[in-house]
Amino acid sequence: MRFDPQNNLISSKGTLREVLEVLNASPIGIVFLVDELQRVNGIMTDGDVRRAILAGADLHDPAQNYMVQNFIFGKTSNPPGENLKLLNDTIRHLPVLDEEGRLARFISFTDFCWLPVMEPTLLGNEMAYVQDCIKTNWISSQGKYVGMFEESFASYHNIDYALTSSNGTTALHLALTALGIKTGDEVIVPDLTFAASANAVVHCGATPVFVDIDPHCWNIDPTKIDAAITARTKAIMPVHLYGHPCDMEPILEIARRYGLYVVEDCAEALGARYNGRLVGTLGDLGCFSFFSNKVITTGEGGMVITRTPELKEKILILRDHGMSRQRRYWHEMVGFNYRMTNLQAAIGLAQLEQIDMFLSKRKSLARAYSLKLKDLPGITLPPALPWAETVCWLYSILIDERQVGISRDDLIMALKREGIETRPFFYPLHLMPPFLGHNKDFPVSREVSGRGISFPSSYNLSTAEVERVAANLTKIINHSKSPAMIGSCK
Question: How many CA atoms lie within 13 A of 241 on its CB side?
Fold first, then answer.
């Protein structure tokens, strides 16, 4: 139901208690105090009420004694877009008053012109399958959809085994644990990736050893892996960042030469291909995430795929408390509760049925973005190397601050004020508190991280909205030296 700001009007003669009652029933945190002619005299938030009480006020005191009279508001007489300029990190919602000072409407990013970086798309059989789970009472980790999702996922990848897990991080943890990665071992990880890649290594008691990235594809640089290998190295974890595959052939050759395992982190790259082969099928194990912003989603969830029956059996035991598959409640090892529910698997199966449609739209969005941005100075478009078929998980670019005339972070804020959500790239792992102590520098990782920005990339995004993002980006860059960078939200 759409929010009606008129429900948040109370008389200026009302009490602090009445203000709290309206706030408790409202989806927003503002009350408007009005006179007999419905003109807004002031506003109050729950913070204002708390401050009044701390200053000695009683809940029966008149609210007008404590209301904020000098508040920010828009005007119905303002030209289009002027009111939007008043929205910022502090002011997320804005009352708009008419010439008499009465509340005419209420605007915010979310209901006016907000474009999220990503949102789930539930267009297929998701509801029908979930309702089937509920009707049949199979809502936990036992139910037909878990097996159906696993079989469908394995079939899509033309691989023997696919095993669900509770999320992408637990998929990585299961894979590494099944390989016997333990305290004292080392695993090669790219310096630029989401922290879950390295966290899973630490959860095994092992040490992540970081390697710089290739500037051409933003993934682990195979030419730098040899130097990071020691007698304790047991595995390499290539991460297919932002949907672009790693250069797997040299990585696999290094792994063969040193006798190392390869665990592919495919969290952002479901459907991507390396020399025609789907990512996740090239190493010993492939791990996927189904968080709500991924290529397909189960809300939270993950998957491990492999061709090795021994690894499959070990993962099945590990994800279910280490319990024997033949002898119930007999625990063969210390395991985990990393199971996916039937409800999640039902959504995942419905999502997987639409994957070709999802991937096709992502390619279309990438083409549309690139066409609009290719001639913009200071912009590096997403990598697309000859051996790679990327899925464009997020449409991500690099900016050269010297050429565009605005910092990456200021650009993010400028686009936010236009109602466009963006994301900076991940921080290099070696700079973050859990992983401090590495003496090596990773210059490419630092540079790419500091220059990277990702744009809205949802399946729901229209061509017109891609054009809106590109137009606002172009406008901000072209007027980066002007104090008035933010215009209308069209």
Answer: 34
What pLDDT score was predicted for residue 479?
A: 83
| Residue 141 pLDDT greater than 80, yes or no | yes
Residues 166 and 76 in one domain: no
**Which of 112, 136, 163 is at the close of a domain?**
112
Alpha-carbon distances of 77 from 74, 93, 97, rounded to whole Å: 9, 18, 9
As given in the structure block, the two tokens for residue 309 are: 């029956």
Average pLDDT over residues 56-74: 94
- Return the DSSP state at 2: -
Q: What is the pLDDT of residues 11-41, one digit of tens each?
A: 999 999 999 999 988 877 899 999 999 999 9
Based on the domain organization, do 157 and 94 belong to the same domain?
no
State how many domains the chain has: 3
Instruction: Please indicate, yes or no, whether residues 35 and 62 belong to a single structural domain of this protein.
Output: yes
How far is it between the farthest Cα atoms of the chain? 83
Cα separation of 293 and 445, whole Å? 23
What is the tens place of the pLDDT at every residue in 256-283?
Answer: 999 999 999 999 999 999 999 999 999 9
- Helices 196-203 + 168-178 axis angle, to 10: 40
Q: Left, alpha or beta for 98 (phi > 0: left; psi -120 to 50: alpha)?
A: beta
Nearest-angstrom CA–CA distance, 43 and 90 = 15
End-to-end Cα, the chain, rounded Å? 24
Tell me: do 319 and 175 sit in the same domain.
yes
Does 446 lie in the same domain as 364?
Answer: yes
Please state, in angstroms and rounded to a whole number, the distance separating the CA atoms of residues 228 and 226.
5
In this predicted structure, the answer to whether residue 358 has a pLDDT above a threshold of 70 is yes
Among 352, 380, 415, the domain-final residue is 352
- Say yes or no to pLDDT of 486 above 60: no
- Provide φ and ψ at 263, rounded to 5°: -115, 110
Asked if residue 192 and residue 339 are part of one domain, the reply reads: yes
Tell whether 117 is covered by a domain.
Answer: no
For 277, the domain range is: 126-352
What residues have CB less than 8 Å from 373, skipping those under 6 apart?
379, 381, 397, 470, 473
Domain shared by 133 and 166, yes or no: yes
Which tokens go with 353? 């049925």
CATH number at residue 443: 3.90.1150.10
Total residues found in the chain within this entry: 490
pLDDT of the residue at 223: 98
**Judgement on whether residues 308 and 373 belong to the same structural domain of the protein:** no
Please report whether residue 490 resides in a domain: no
Confidence (pTM): 0.79
Residue 488: φ, ψ to 5°? -75, 155
Residue 377 C-alpha from the chain's centroid: 28
Tell me which DSSP letter residue 239 carries: B
Q: Is the pLDDT of residue 322 over 90?
A: yes
